[in-house]
Design brief:
homodimer; alpha/beta; Aminopeptidase; Glucose Oxidase, domain 1; eight-stranded mixed sheet; five-stranded mixed sheet; 13 helices; 38% helix
Chain lengths: 462, 462
């Protein structure tokens, strides 16, 4: 009886000891990142030395070289490129939307072509019909829509607390508006920008055509312009609207995922992945989307290096290419993992902006979810409180296989869509400490997963 | 046995029903505020039509009139002013700090006089001695300090996750630096600005003298200037530093707390108070500090009005005067409560910036704390997660009597000290949704406290 009690006491004290060590390690990770992190300066360099970097562009190639050099300078054990083929869409010099009112006056509209749109090949002009939901499209039918420009003006719902939900409930009109409207004979598409802010800044983003023979131009307009246009239509003040876009789709081209690793000391064949996407839209600087995610991801490996933590498993940072308009990087990476049979234990993506972190969205088995939730109390001093089941991210999504645990960093969402896909997504709008707190949070969870492994994986070794 | 079971089932279903009703009411409060709140436009008006409003200034008087009119326009049941006497400190036109290096070059320093400082009465100049903590002051002693300007350069610790803690551990050098240094014969004081940001913006704030006969001028300098000055001292590059300030203390003057109420329907004599402070420092616009708090507080009453909620208890919004440099408003309000014996049940203050709300800091009895914590799950959909024991706020602090429950709204703290007491604290740096989410959070907790009362108060009526 006595010896059983001793064993129990020993176990409890070992458990408490380990908790205490973890708590100290997390403190060390946060202290380091809040005082000596490189991630803010790395983001400045990416935003200011490279700037925006749409797949296929020269600056995307420069970003690949920048990332490779940065990883090499971090003295990672391995740094390599993974070649992929990416779409190459190019915004033209001409990007104009304006309308004439019944008095013959011209009203200019703040606009930006949607990524993937065809150009107008001259000027497209016509009457405008406003649509708020898909059923209206059907109601109006070919009779009313044919020959007109369709204006998708569904507003992002401000009552969603998580702005990502508001985005998710609206983005279909941007993505599929043109391909749906063309079926009713539309000649062009305007889409209200995906933002909760009421301002003059248009936000681009991806769209695609369902049918390669029926392509009509599609352009985003600012929320203020969308409001004004809607009012003008209501008051019968709008006569014709004019669109002129010189954007075009070029041939696919070669690009790369950029990958860096620290080899694991005990289980080098088990990968713990952390990543974001290196490409961005071609306006602004891709600071929050997703410069923040790539510099934070690299910062995880930097943290291990600088604090002389020797990972048990192989830590891999992946800077994906082409998340914005094709996800070719994420898909190719996953297909290579399937081909080579590389054992991935855990993958974490940061792609929701460099804001004050709130927690993690976990896409794994029930046991993995509960296991990660058991770490929640370690994060309480750092004000992380979300450890819930949910979607991880676009780049790591294709890795999903029912066994691997996928996780997305969840920052505060209130400001993200103020900047997302617009000229306002610049370095100056990222807050140093918030970025560093995000890097600390993902470094911490990677530290714990590396140390303890994860349940429901054959190779779990505590 | 059967009837007991029925009673239990009835109780459970009533309990669940009430939870469901509360959850719907909170949803209604949030929906209203995220779609139709006035608080952002009210803040714009306070910042742009009035601007900064230091106690005793003309603009503070304008702010009192503005607040009274706003409350009257909100059709509150009662609106009145509570007269107080406030200090009147005036920044002068001259505000200059510069130093000469060994090559005779002049280096200008970004500075702002500390509130309460005497002027320099001409130019004060001398050598500079850098101090990082109080014990250094003692170590150097009169021998080294006499006739010099003391430069307090303790850095806000970036490893605190809550930036308020970092502020709290540094602000003593601003507040007491001059009165401590003068004991060693110092002729002036420079204080590193209280911010975690490394930039050129100086931040003012209150200071006071322990001894009315020994007053030396005190000025804040930006963190970049503090860094440069420290480097210059280290490298023996600084010869003399010059200070010229024309600020002065004028006679006390009359001002007011502005108070508005909705009368309670069942217990009109029980007060549920919500407030912030109307005064601000005399640079910037006092947008986060504390324009946000006053417009959010009024928004609580607006929410009840517009949603036609009839409060059981009397809801009172107090816009306090003189939080920044004397807290005369808060102290006088509390003394009047003691004098009249007015029964206060609950007081909530919003004075930590208009950022994304995280929860509440509760200064009450153990039972009150646990009682408020029982509401935490109702706030989970709104991402509030802090319901912990802690300090409430400066204005409501004097009400503390061991029975009354005091609460502070806790927003995300990362950005607050970027703006606090500086020219950067302007309307443009407040985020509409974040401000509205804060107003929703305090409206919600006031709704619950009004409905259910609070334990450990004689008049608790559920």
């Amino acid at each position: 009886m006595k010896s059983l009690l001793s064993i129990i006491i020993l176990f409890c004290s070992l458990f408490l000891k380990s908790q205490e060590i973890d708590s100290l390690k997390l403190r060390e990770i946060y202290d380091f990142n809040l005082q000596q992190s490189n991630c803010y300066e790395n983001l400045r360099s990416l935003c200011k030395d490279i700037g925006h970097r749409l797949s296929g562009s020269k600056s995307a190639q420069k970003a690949v070289e920048w990332a490779e050099l940065l990883m090499k300078n971090s003295n990672l054990d391995t740094v390599y490129l993974q070649q992929i083929t990416v779409p190459h869409w190019k915004r033209g010099d001409v990007e104009k939307v304006y309308w004439k009112n019944i008095n013959g006056e011209t009203i200019d509209v703040n606009c930006t072509a949607l990524g993937g749109s065809v150009g107008t090949n001259g000027i497209v002009n016509g009457e405008v019909i406003e649509i708020k939901n898909w059923s209206q499209l059907e109601e109006f039918g070919k009779n009313k829509i044919k020959g007109k420009i369709v204006f998708f003006n569904r507003v992002m719902n401000p009552t969603y607390i998580n702005t990502g939900m508001a985005y998710g409930s609206c983005v279909d009109q941007r993505h599929s508006g043109a391909s749906r409207a063309v079926e009713y004979g539309a000649i062009g598409v305007l889409v209200r920008s995906m933002t909760l802010k009421f301002d003059n800044i248009p936000h681009t983003g991806s769209m695609s055509y369902a049918d390669s023979t029926k392509k009509i131009p599609a352009v985003a307009i600012s929320t203020v312009d969308a409001h004004n246009l809607s009012e003008a239509l209501k008051n019968n003040e709008l006569k014709y609207l004019f669109m002129e876009l010189s954007c075009k789709q070029l041939d696919d081209t070669i690009s790369y995922n950029v990958i860096g690793e620290i080899k694991g000391q005990e289980f080098p064949d088990e990968i713990v992945l952390v990543g974001g996407h290196l490409d961005s839209w071609d306006i602004g600087e891709g600071a929050h989307d997703d410069g923040a995610g790539v510099v934070q991801s690299l910062q995880v490996l930097e943290t291990f290096k600088k604090l002389k933590f020797k990972p048990k498993r192989t830590l891999r940072c992946v800077m994906y290419m082409n998340e914005e308009n094709g996800n070719r990087g994420g898909k190719h990476y996953a297909s290579m993992v399937r081909k080579t049979g590389e054992k991935h234990l855990f993958a974490l993506e940061s792609d929701r902006g460099g804001f004050s972190p709130r927690g993690f969205s976990i896409d794994g088995t029930k046991i993995q979810l509960e296991y990660l939730q058991s770490f929640e109390k370690l994060f309480k001093p750092y004000q992380l409180h979300v450890f819930s089941k949910g979607y991880s991210g676009v780049d790591i999504g294709p890795l999903k296989d029912g066994k691997l645990c996928l996780v997305g960093l969840i920052p505060d969402s209130q400001r993200y869509f103020d900047f997302h896909h617009s000229k306002a997504d610049v370095f100056e709008n990222v807050h140093k400490r918030e970025l560093e707190l995000g890097a600390s949070a993902i470094s911490s969870i990677v530290y714990l997963v590396d140390k303890y492994g994860l349940p429901e994986n054959k190779s779990l070794k505590k």
